Amino acid sequence: MNKTVDIMIEELQKENEELKKENELLKTVIDRIHESVYVVNEKDEIILYNTESEKMEGLDRKDLLGRKEEDVFAQPYYFSEEVTKKILKTGKPLIDQPYWYNLNDGRKTNMIFSAYPFYYKGQITAVYVIFRNMNQIGDFIAITLEMQKKFIKEELSHHDGAMYLLDDIIGINSKMKRITADARRIACRNSPVLIVGETGTGKELFAQGIHNASLYSEGPFIPVNCAAIPDTLLESLLFGTVKGAFTGATDTPGLFEQAEEGTIFLDEINSMSFSLQSKLLRVLQEKSVRRLGSKVQMPLHCRVISATNIDPVEAVKEQIIRSDLYFRLATITLNIPPLRERKEDIEVLARHFIRKCNHEFGLFVNDISEELIRFFEQYDWPGNVRELENFVEGAMNFVHNKEKMLKLHHVPEYFGERLFLLNKDLQNTDNFQGQHTAIHNGTLQDALLETEKNIIKSTLMRNKGNISRSAKVLGISRQNLHYKLKALGITNK
C-alpha cells in the first residue's frame, strides 16, 4: 500500500515538474516575440505582461502584476472599460482594432490590437491582448525586405545597383560591430546619412547595405563619384537637362530623377565646388529638382546618402564643404575606422579574401601562415581594406594548384619591399631607447620577428608590464598583444 502511494506521489511530482517546465517555456516564448502581450483575469488584475510590453510602455512588470489596469496606466485610461471589461462581460473578441493612448511618460503610442476571451471549464477567466506597435511596423518591413534580398542576392549580382548587404560587412572589432548595428537601426528611416571614412574603408559597401535594408530597397541605387566628374558635367548629370539648355542638350532626366523611390549615393562630396553645393542644398531643402533650362520643379522621393574621405568638421572650417550643406547631409553620421585602428580584423578579412580568390581562381587555399599575418598586422594599410584585398589577390596569383596555405613567399615583391622599409623605420624609432640593433644574417622574416619581439619587450618594460597601456602604445588590442606574447615566447615579468 505504502509503495503504491509512493509511486503515485512520485508520478504527481513528475507531472507537476512537467507543468512547471511547460509554464516556464511558454513564458519564455511570449517574452521573445515582437508583439506586446498582456493578460488580465476576471477581476481585471494584470497577471501577464511580456518584455515587449515593457519596452513599448516603459514600465516594469514587477510594478504591474497583480494590480488593476486603471491603477497603473496613465489617466485618463479608457482601454479597460472599452476592451478588457467589455470582453469579460460579452465573451466577444475584438480583432485588428486601431488604438492610441498616452503613455506614463507623456508620449503617445499608436497600435493595432486584438483581444480574446480565455475560457476555463466553460467560464471566462481572463482576457489576453496582443498589440502591434505601429511605429515598429516600418522596422519589421525593412527587416523582411533585407531577408528577401539575401535570397535573391545571386540574381542581384548580375544587375547594376546595390549588391551588398549589411551582413556582408566583415569584422570582429567592437567599433565596427557597433557601427554596423547602427546602420541597420537607421536603415528603415529616410533621414540623410553621411558616411565618413578614409579611402578604401568600405563607405559604398555601407551605403549599399543601408539601401538594401531600407524601405527604398526595391528602387534603384544610384552611386555618383563627385571627384571623378567635372563640375560642369556633374551639374547636368545630377539635375538633368531639357532640349536647348545648351548646345547639344537633349531632354534627359538627371540622376536624382533616376533615383526616384530609391537611393542616391554622393561619394566624395567634399570634391564638389561651393557653387554646385549651393544648388544641391536647394534640391535637398525643397525636395524637388529643376532640369537645366527648365522652369518646372519636379518633386523628388529618394533617400540621400553621402560620403567624405576627410573629416567633415575640418572640411567645414577650411571652407571645403558648406556648413549648411553639411548640417543637411549629416542628420546621421557613421564614422568608419581605418584598418590600422582595428587590426584584429586583418586576419578575418584576409581569410575572407582568400576564400573569394579560391572561388575565382579555382584554388584550394584554406589557411594563412602566422608569419604572414604578423607582417600584415605590422603594416599601417594606408589604402585600408581595399589595399589588403589587392595584396591578398596579388599573393594568390603566385599560389600553385596543390598548395593549401598562403605564405610569405607568395607575397609580391613590391609588398616585401614595403615591409622591409617599415622594419627599417621601426628600428630608427625610440622604441629601442638607445639599444644596439643586431645585424641579422638570416632572412627578412627572421629580422622582422626579432624586431617585433624587441619592440614589445621594450614597450612592456616602459609601461611596467601593464598590458592595456602597452597595447595602446603599440596600437593593437589587448587580445592581440596577449596572442603576440604567446606566439613570440615573451614572458611579461
UniProtKB/TrEMBL annotation:
Pfam family, one: AAA_lid_14
A molecular function (GO) term: ATP binding
Residue stretches making up the Sigma-54 factor interaction domain: 169-397
Domain PAS, chain residue ranges per copy: 22-67
This protein's record includes keyword Transmembrane helix: no
Cited PROSITE patterns: PAS (PS50112), SIGMA54_INTERACT_1 (PS00675), SIGMA54_INTERACT_2 (PS00676), SIGMA54_INTERACT_3 (PS00688), SIGMA54_INTERACT_4 (PS50045)
Keywords recorded for this protein, A-Z: ATP-binding, Coiled coil, DNA-binding, Nucleotide-binding, Transcription, Transcription regulation
Regions annotated as coiled coil: 2-36
InterPro entries membership: AAA+_ATPase (IPR003593), AAA_lid_NorR (IPR058031), Homeodomain-like_sf (IPR009057), HTH_Fis (IPR002197), P-loop_NTPase (IPR027417), PAS (IPR000014), PAS-like_dom_sf (IPR035965), PAS_fold (IPR013767)
Signal peptide boundaries: none
GO BP, sorted A to Z: regulation of DNA-templated transcription
Record bears the keyword Ribosomal protein: no
PANTHER family noted in UniProt: TRANSCRIPTIONAL ACTIVATOR ROCR, TRANSCRIPTIONAL REGULATORY PROTEIN
Family annotation (NCBIfam families): sensory_box
Protein name, as recorded: PAS domain S-box
Species annotation: Desulfosporosinus youngiae DSM 17734
